[in-house]
Amino acid sequence: MLDKSKVNIPERFKDHPVFNTLHCGMNFGFMAKRGYYSRKEMLEQPEKMAKAGVNWTTLNANFCQEHFYSRKHFLDFNFSSGELELAEMAKSMHDNGIKILFKPCLTLLDSAWMGMVNFPDGQQQIQGVKSSYWNEWFSSFTESTKYFADFAERVKLDSLIIGAEYYGTEGRSDDWRKVIAEVRKIYSGPITYEFTCTSRKAYSLDWFQDLDFLSYSYYPPACARNAEPPVARSNPHYTLENMMDYLSSRKEKIISICDRFDNKPIAFTEIGVRAAHGCILKPFDFEWETYYDGEEQANYMEAIFRTFWELPQWMGMYWWKWDETQNRPQYHTDPKGDMGFTIAGKPAENVLRKWFAKGK
């Protein structure tokens, strides 16, 4: 659990809630379409989340670009939430004691992963012709980010993710530093950026020095592969102790990541596994056909908390995820239970509630 005496925290944020609690968090509203947050059943979720031990949550807000190679960002009348519904949901979260990590999400309408955004750079072949792809993309992105930063400031959202998994852009250090500088002019709270294991291997990410804390999209397996490719349904049963033993080597890796970036604290802002047998082989997988296993999901969450709890750099985690906004038929083929990532009504809910109490 975070020890402020052993990490580098900006002085102005020493007493900020983001650095003064164990984050028992949830991702909420991924791919939520317009009107989602205004629905009665969704406005009831913050109370349910609080009872489950959730004290922080992401609040997702989609903004779009047409294709992975497009350079113009915009709000979409289908995918982008309105300000009023976002503000209403934020109030409901705060009224139930839940802090908000605001997470504007770039949504590519061609369905590509946001990390696929990329352009040629200095590779033009026709004399006298040079296209400023990156300038156009970052110019539009900066304006979008300023819009969300202004909203976060006005509605008093507790922290802000300025980007998440934009892998193809992450080598552009100077451009990202300019984005951060513009956000700082508008938003007074702590800011972060969510990276992946691929990111830290591919780029220097020296612009992370300008962030207030690190956000890691992290789905570590909790057992060795049983085949190539791995097969979920035939995976052996692994106990909590087995999972902890397998995960133990990951502690040093997290410490090294923090050391690399000026000993900043770190939150796992995406982490989770389905309530489905064998998915601890590849926790981010959402397609495997297998069978319900709520205990495996609960043990994975318990193993994560136990493994990283002792690290003074660790702020906590945001489980992927509280709600499911997309139709996943493969989650509903076993009458014993929902095989998705959600935890409500499953054994993992009790695990989260226990760690919330311990964190207090």
Describe this structure in words.
- By secondary structure, this protein is of the alpha/beta class.
- The chain has a single domain (4-359), classed as Alpha-Beta Barrel (TIM Barrel), CATH 3.20.20.
- The chain is 31% helix and 14% strand.
- It is built from 10 helices and 8 strands.
- An 8-stranded parallel β-barrel has the order 1-2-3-4-5-6-7-8.
- α4 runs parallel beside α5 (173-184) and α9 runs parallel beside α10 (347-359).
- The radius of gyration is 20 Å and the shape is globular.
- The chain starts with 22 loop residues before the first strand and ends with a helix.
- 44% of the residues are buried.
Largest sheet, described in full?
8 strands, parallel, barrel
Alpha plus pi helix count:
10
State which percent range the strand residues make up.
Answer: 5-15%
Domain count: 1
How many strand elements?
8
Structure classification: alpha/beta
The best one-word shape is globular
CATH superfamily: Glycosidases
Question: Could you name the CATH topology?
Answer: TIM Barrel
Descriptors:
360 residues; eight-stranded parallel barrel; TIM Barrel; globular; alpha/beta; 31% helix
